[in-house]
Structures are given as structure tokens and as C-alpha cells.
């Protein structure tokens, strides 16, 4: 461990504790990242940029990145900024995540791998005294998520921090929406409406990648896209989903199996741009045609293609959720609308600098939805960016995520979303699967007290 990193270690943990915040003798925190395809590229961009935009009492140092193929991970280290000019690429690359965790120059482990490895890596890193950032969904099962939340709680007592990568909380317009709801601008909440629509599985020739396998991904559109909108609904409203009625469907049950595609990607082409490591990466290069790879047969899709569910909130508000990769023409349409007694808010990720607000207390003849351009210095995260009107994009959410995590570590405060928040989302996903298996029977979300749950929700009396 370097001298500065020794300074950063407090009480045997990695970099917890307050700083003077002056910039002089700023602490350095070594980041080690596992996985370097789609999310790996996005997180790398966040780590590279955060210290150049936000004034922070801790500097992130890109220490090392981990994959499974030596040559590919070295190339990724080079491409994504992990191999600093004064170090050879090999010094910044590991092929075993256990070796990454064991490195003295790694204080924070950033997990950008598929869900089947989240629990093992996160718990090992926390038990080794490291801070952890873990991509969503937190895990593939509630049991794994419970073990991770317990490990995070133990680690918190030692001053460590664990955060889940629900990056959409860091879209300034959505952080503003939360602020406006908390300020009571909508009055009593009646409707919470979220959809997350993509279309990259419409073509039945799209290959069977890890995202279509339950053993790797846990679930399909539900865990991938549904997890985001459940977290957002809970974040923006400040309430926990009490219970759900759900339907799920797998529209295309068999897909081409390509040579080497035992793991896989996100939307076609995206991970390909980010680079691959010879296993997950194979599918990363593919479009629907598999990018010229050899078809070796067909395989069963073992996850949902779409999930649709209604839900109750403890306050009595009703919610609807829809997550699908079959919405032809919709690329990344995460949409939210809230209706309250005093007004409404509407947001679309494909226009992410804008938040629409209707103030229902204004005279009817002049009221209506108006566009708030969320680029003012007083808006969340905007104080560090460009003059008003010079908008932000998807990648900025990862810079904001890095900022919030470093801030939590430097100040010794609990991060949001915590592993407990990730567990709470996991419980909603499990309730959705349970309800869908019973053809939409209302299913309370397990494992949490429902302080203000509408009594009908408890009894399931509203079931159609
Ligand atoms: N926050 C978001 O908006 C968002 C978007 C996409 C994906 N994700 C999440 O990020 C995670 C990764 O998704 P992705 O799209 O980046 O996938 P991907 O297939 O593009 O990349 C996965 C990476 O993990 C590596 N990997 C897999 N198993 C490994 C192991 N045992 N050891 C070392 N490396 C290993 C692969 O080689 C690859 O580099 C998933 O949990 C996914 O749900 C989040």
C-alpha cells in the first residue's frame, strides 16, 4: 500500500473517515474493477472523470481491472485508462478477482460482472476490508442479497461502505423529482407509473447470451430493467412497494447458441464498443446475426422477456410497472409519471435533461405541464458542470455515482443506495415472480414491515 493509501486506511479499513476537504494532502483511494465490457466501460469513464469535475476530499486512483483472459484484460486496462503512463499494462490487470481483492493498492472493489458472481465477489471484498460498489440487480436471489446486506452491515461497523449501482438515481432530473416530491409539491400521491422499454430482443435470431439464462442473470427484463424502475419508484416517492400483482412472459423460447456465447451482453453492439475479454465479449460483438460467429445449435431462454405488474404503496398510492426488451422502436425508454392531489411530474430518459411539472393548484385556465430544463446550478449535480442549457447525458450518471460513493467514504456516511436498498428491490422482484407464477395473485413483498400499508393490500381484497 502506498503512503497516501496508508493515510487513507482508518482503523484497518479502506479509506473510511473524515478528511479536511482542503485538497491539501488529499487522500487517494485505489479502485479495482471486475469486468470491463458495457458497465466496465461506463464505470471507468466515471472514475476517470470524477476528480476533474467535482471537488472531493478523496482522489480515486484506477489501480487495476480484472477479467478472465490475460491479453484481453491488458488491452482493456490500456483502453479504459487503468494502465497509467508510468506503469505497464500488465501491472494494472488481473485475471482472478481474488487476486484483485488481495492487492494492497485496491481499497474499493467495483463489481461490473453478471449477477451470478455479485454475491461471492462482494462478500469476499467486504470481508477483506474493502469498500464495494456492485452493479444492479444486487444479486440473483433474495438469499444472496440477504447475505450481501448482512456482510455490508458487518463491514459498516468497521467503517466500510457498500453501494449498489442504480445509476439512474443520479440523473439530475430524477434527483430533482425526488426533491419536489419530498417538498410536498405533488400533495398526496395517487399514481406512480413507470415503464422501462427496450427492443433489442425483437429479432428471434438474436443469440442466447448470459442475459437470457436464469443461472447467470437471475431473471430477464425483470431483473435487468424492472430492478431499475422499482428502485426509482422507491427512491422518488420515499416509499417501499408493499405488494404486487404480476404477469411475465417469454415470447421467444429458443434462440441460436453461438460458439463461445456461454456468457453475453446487453443491447447489440453496446458491449462490443466497450471491448470484451473473450468470453462475455463474444456476444458483445454481435448484432442479431451473431457478428459472424458460428451457430452451434439452439438453446432455451430461461428468463422472462417482459414483466408487467401493478403495485400498492403504503400511503395508498397505486403503481404500474412495465419492463420489456420487446418494445419495437423503444431504445432506452425509461419513463416515469407521478400524479398527486396538487400536481404531476413526468420524465423520459430519452430526454434526460427535462422534467415536466404540472402544478394543479394554479388556475385551470392557465395551468398545464411545463418543461423544467434541469441544467441550472441549483439543480442536483449541476453546480460542477456547464452553464445552463448545456445538457448532460447517460455517462454523467456514472460520474455522479462515483462522486456520491467517494463522498460517503470520505465523510464516513452511509451510502445510497445501500445493499439494504438493493435487498429491498430484490424482494420486490421475488414477489413479482411469485405473483406471476400464480397468474397475478396479489403478493405482499416479504421481509419488511409495512408501517402504513393499506389494509386491503394486506388482505389482498382487491384481487381481480
Ligand atoms: N446500471 C446500469 O444501467 C446497467 C446497465 C447494464 C448492465 N448493468 C449490470 O451490470 C452488470 C454487468 O453487465 P454488463 O452489461 O456490463 O455485462 P457485459 O457482458 O457487457 O460485461 C460483463 C463483464 O464481466 C466479466 N466477467 C464475467 N464473469 C467474470 C468473472 N468471474 N471474473 C471476472 N470477470 C468476469 C466479463 O468478462 C465482462 O467483461 C450486470 O449486473 C448488469 O445487470 C447495469
TrEMBL record:
Q: Which residues form the GFO/IDH/MocA-like oxidoreductase domain?
A: 176-345
Give the species. Answer: Streptomyces aurantiacus JA 4570
Q: Does the keyword Acetylation apply?
A: no
Q: Where is this region: Disordered?
A: 1-24
Among Gene3D superfamilies, the record links this protein to: Dihydrodipicolinate Reductase, domain 2, NAD(P)-binding Rossmann-like Domain
UniProt protein name: Putative oxidoreductase y4hM
Question: Has keyword rRNA processing?
Answer: no
Keywords noted in UniProt: Oxidoreductase
Enumerate the spans annotated as Gfo/Idh/MocA-like oxidoreductase N-terminal domain: 30-161
Q: Where is the composition biased (Gly residues)?
A: 12-24
A molecular function GO annotation: nucleotide binding
